[in-house]
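FAQ: What does the model actually see?

It sees only this:
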Amino acid sequence: MKNKVVPTIKLYDYLLVPIQIELDDNTVERLQMQILHEIHEKEVQGIIIDVSMVDVIDSYISFVLSETAGMAKAMGCYVVICGIQPQVALTLSQMGIKLKDIITAQSLEDAINILDKLE
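And it is asked to produce this:
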C-alpha cells in the first residue's frame, strides 16, 4: 500500500502499528484502511496498536479503532492496543466509551504475551 499513515513493523506473526502522530477523523480512517490491507498482504495473526505517544482519543477515533478491531477479527486477526496514557483512559472512561473487540495491554511486551497466549 502506498502512502502509509504510519510505518509498521512485522514482528513474528504480528503487525506492530506505533502511532506517533496526532490522530484526527481523516487520519484514523486512512489508518483503518492501511491496517486492513496489511492484514491481508502480510498474513498476520495479530495487530498491536501502540498509542503511548497519543495524547487524545476522542469518541470517533475510539469508534474507528473498535470498528477496525471488529474487521480484523472477521479476517482472523486479534487486535491489542497498548500504552494508553492515564489522561486518555480517564477521558474514555468519563465519556463512557468502550473499546469493543479490542484487548488492552499496558506495554508492548504485555501485548506480545497476550497475543502469544491467544494463538
